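User: Show me an example of a complex going from sequences to structure tokens.

Assistant: Sure. Here are the input components:
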Amino acid sequence: MERTDAAGVRLGMWLFLYTEIMLFGGLFVLYSVYRHRYQAAFAAGGLELELPLGALNTCVLLASSFAVAAAVESVRRGLKKAALAFLGSAALLGAVFLLVKYGEWSRKFALGLYPGGARLSAEPGGFKAFFGLYYALTGLHALHVSIGCLALGVCWALVWKGAVHGGRLNVLENSGLYWHLVDIVWIFLFPLFYLVA
Amino acid sequence: MSDSFYEEPSAPGQTGWRAWLLTTDHKRIALLYLWVVLFWFLAGAAFGLTARTQLMAHGQHLLTAKAYNAVFTLHGVIMVFLFIIPGIPVILGNFLLPLQIGARDVFFPRLNLLTWYLYVAGGLLAIGSLFAKGAPDTGWTFYVPFSLSTQTGVTFTVFAVFVLGLSSMLTGLNFITTVHRLRAPGMGWLQLPLFTWSVYATAWVQLLATPIIAVTLLLIIVERVFGVGLFDPARGGDPLMYQHLFWMYSHPAVYIMILPGMGIISEIFPVFSRKSIFGYKAIVAATMGIAIIGSLVWAHHMFVSGMSDVAVLLFSFLTFLVAVPSAVKVFNWVSTMYRGSIVMSPPLLLALWFVFLFTIGGLSGLVQGAAGPNVHIHDTYWVVAHFHFVMFGGTGFAFLAGLHFWWPKLFGRMYDFKKAYLGSALLAAGFLLHYFPQFILGLQGMPRRYYTYLPELRPLNFAAGIGAYIMVAGLLLLVANLLLSLRRRRDAPGNPWDATTLEWQTSSPPPRENFLAEPRPPAYPYDFRRGG
């Protein structure tokens, strides 16, 4: 059945994005309660994270979000080459984000700052809660970035094949919306973990 | 007579089992769901009956304490997550919602099929968890810290519930989009049949509440596998937060269970009273009101868990508030019958039982919602009796009423009335004998979830066991009677009840694309003035 109701498809995507917000929302509830309870420990935890890497990743994601928006606009105007370039760089930036995140996690692991790790086990409860939330939230977020990268890759292939074009934007637009959501979740995670000190 | 959707596969050219397992037709998907849900319903009933048989005599005889824990956990998990949460929306909602709004299908037909596969996968995972590392023994609530420390295969069970949640959430997403985008021309919001309204309100709760339990269950898995510890006091966590997050979903989930049932009842009363529903707009408002307020009462499950008194009083107040729209509906149904031309039929009988049992269940809920009495009856059989009155006496009876009401629409066949009356009478009589003693047992202090009890509580437990057998006999008779009708020829009239909503304007069973001519929605869905 040929789909013509783009507004309906977009509505479905927005509803899906609500569910994503609620999914992260559960963890944000935990964050706010534990933050309220262990203010000092959270500040100490924040000092353990590497602010420059977090800031770098924020820029990386913001740039990739711009690239996705530009890709959608390029397809709308029929600029296929530009669209492919923008989409490719957005997915690439997503991969860079994951790489940086991987580096951060490994450095923390090397320091014994992971659940069950030597150093974290010796710290007080609030500090453990901070890192528990850090791993849970950034882990869930990284999972979303990976899915988003895959979606952008699929979009790249569809644009390349000509299956997504100015008159048929649904898949690309929805992938873009998803990517912006992933971006905005990070915009909240960055201050909550890196700037809390 | 033209061909129905049975003769015309939805993906053209598919035959045999492919015509079913690869279908995107909402009607075929609804029937796929019907058979699987029915299987789980009967399986859940079998587990429940096993537990009640154990409780008929004092001490350990049929089941060991450990086996009893597994049996009631499986009864709970199956009934909650595989029967009563999905049940009405995925079967009757799937089949009827597009028909009631004059659409050809749901908005995302392929997504609809995906939800069925997720549902089946979730069911298989739940069964698989039995054999993984020993049957789960946590109860359906998976409360920490026990769910973190038990050595049984809880990780699998929790993952099964996660997958089922995904299925439920996507169904909700699909239905909301369908109602917003696919209403036939002339079908405004206040022309929507009340069943569609209730499934729509339910869909919002499914959509917004399910992710909370999804992430909570993920955290259980993460704690068990990686030892993160967000609910473990030794690692800075707080078990009370698990309860908050769990009930933030699971209390709204009881409205996922009951709202579609209320929708069914709102369809049945006007049809068999030959009279317009009393207070259409009030029911719509009450439906949305329940969906909204019902999302704000979760902590009344936790009055004795160690919350502040302010929180207890606030949540108690909100709990009383949510009873108002539910009561409004009960008055609407009863008022609909007032001075109507009442025609008795099996769906109406089941609907009347619904009103009776649901009212008892609802009022007993207020006793729990009050902060004082709650301390006395918390975790006793009173609570068990209460939620079986609303969930089984309410949703279960509504589900059966809906099946009997729309059976001719689904299959084009009529069942035997006598057996249906007898079955529902047995079901209701057994139900009362089974669950009413549990109120008394609860007041006498019998705790839930134990394989045995103090010897002096034996007579009432024995009576409840007898009731359980009568109830299951009635249930089997009802189901067998429906199934036997499938052996007949497809000879039910298109609109056997003279109902007015849009799904009855087309033939029964409906053709592949639901309506042969452009459907013409009535200006008001319950207008019985024209002939009939």
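The lines above are the inputs; the final block is the predicted structure for all two components together. The longest helix of chain A spans residues 125-161.
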